[in-house]
Amino acid sequence: MMTLIGASLLLAACGNDSASKDGSSAEPDAAQLAEQKCMGCHGKNLEGASAPDLTKIGAEKSEDEIHDIIKNGTKGGMPSGLVNDAEAKELAKWLAEKK
Ligand code: HEC
After folding, report:
1. Minimum CA distance residue for ligand 1 atom 17
2. Are the beta carbons of 72 and 80 closer than 8 angstroms?
3. Residue 55 is inside which H or E element, if any?
4. Tens digit of pLDDT per residue, the chain (99 long)?
5. Nearest to residue 47, comparing CAs of 36, 57, 39, 55?
6. Which of 35, 36, 42 most suits a substitution to test ligand 1, by most atoms within 8 Å of the C-beta?
């Protein structure tokens, strides 16, 4: 009888902090993004300030509409280009669940 133990330990030392710190390829965290990029105008709980309340935005607008607003801004004062594409998607998904 031969033993087959041993080969499985070779795979242990791969990628730990590969894409975690540069902010471009890491998975965006919507809540943290909102805090950094949105709450200055929308209020620290998104309850509205100089900009509208977003706490029930998902009841009014679809994820696509929200994504479009985040990406392109509005004539009413919502700036465009605050976040990159992946971040805009993540935020839209997160906001669309607020209803
Ligand atoms: C410089 C201030 C400012 C910042 C920063 C800002 N917004 Fe806005 N936002 C506005 C204003 C003003 C409006 C209202 C625009 C209008 O009525 O046309 C708005 C509108 C919106 C709307 C539509 C609300 C509605 O009821 O139709 C969404 C969604 C939104 N913002 C999301 C975001 C997100 C997400 C961020 C962060 C990435 C963000 N905003 C950052 C000013 C801002």
Report:
1. 76
2. yes
3. none
4. 556 555 544 444 444 444 444 445 567 899 999 999 999 999 999 999 999 999 999 999 999 999 999 999 999 999 999 999 999 999 999 999 999
5. 55
6. 42
Q: What is the pTM of this model?
A: 0.81
CA of 25 to the centre of ligand 1 (A): 25
CA separation for the pair 39, 46 (Å, rounded):
6
CATH number of the domain enclosing 84? 1.10.760.10
CA distance 75 to 55: 21
Cβ pair 52, 70 in contact under 8 A: no
Residue 60 is encoded by which pair of tokens? 């009014």
Write out the residue range of the structural domain in which residue 76 sits.
28-96
The C-alpha atoms of residue 50 and residue 62 are separated, in whole angstroms, by 23
